From TrEMBL:
It comes from Terrapene triunguis. It comes from the Eukaryota. The keyword Signal applies. The keyword Cell membrane does not apply. Residues 7-131 form the Ig-like domain. This is Ig-like domain-containing protein. Residues 1-21 form the signal peptide. It is found in: Membrane. The lineage of its organism: Eukaryota, Metazoa, Chordata, Craniata, Vertebrata. InterPro entries: Ig-like_dom, Ig-like_dom_sf, Ig-like_fold, Ig_sub, Ig_V-set, IgSF_BTN/MOG.
Length: 145
């Protein structure tokens, strides 16, 4: 009797094992940054595993609106949107631990909005959606008076 159930359980196990390799997790709340300053958009793989040999793509509304691309073990600037040129750094200190957080320098008002943190390993990929909010300098000056 059991022999009839075994193959489907094995198939299910194989499906889960080979497809659900990791999930991609953002901070779970909007990140607030200040104009002119640097900010980090947190993103990591769960469970923790090295993303060193994966594709890490940070993009805005479209897959091709590239904020930062890391591929074949290197940062690739060829397809980066001009707006972000020289202002992004994929923080590599934790990349072997699955931490693929992105630092953006010299924050502008136009940086406000949604960001996708997309991580692909072979044919498998997952992504997280993050929200970046910008606080203006003026607002802050008023706040500190
Ligand atoms: C990932 O790296 C960033 C930048 O170094 C750090 O601020 C953050 O705490 C790390 N996150 C995790 C979950 O390790």
């Amino acid at each position: 009797m059991n022999i009839y159930f075994f193959p489907s359980e094995l198939l299910l196990f194989a499906l889960v094992y080979f497809t659900a390799q990791y999930s991609v997790t953002g901070p779970g709340h909007p990140v607030t940054a200040i104009v002119g300053e640097a900010t980090v958009l947190p993103c990591h793989l769960s469970p923790r595993m090295s993303a060193e040999n994966m594709e890490v793509r940070w993009f805005r509304s479209e897959f091709t609106s590239v904020v930062h691309l890391y591929l074949h073990g290197k940062d690739q600037y060829g397809k980066q949107m001009p707006d972000y040129r020289g202002r992004t750094e994929l923080l590599k200190a934790g990349i072997t631990d699955g931490n693929v957080s992105l630092q953006i320098l010299n924050i502008r008002h136009s940086d406000e909005g949604q960001y996708y943190c997309f991580v692909q390993d072979g044919s498998f990929y997952e992504e997280a959606l993050l929200e970046l909010k910008i606080a203006g300098q003026l607002l802050l000056e008023v706040y500190y008076q």
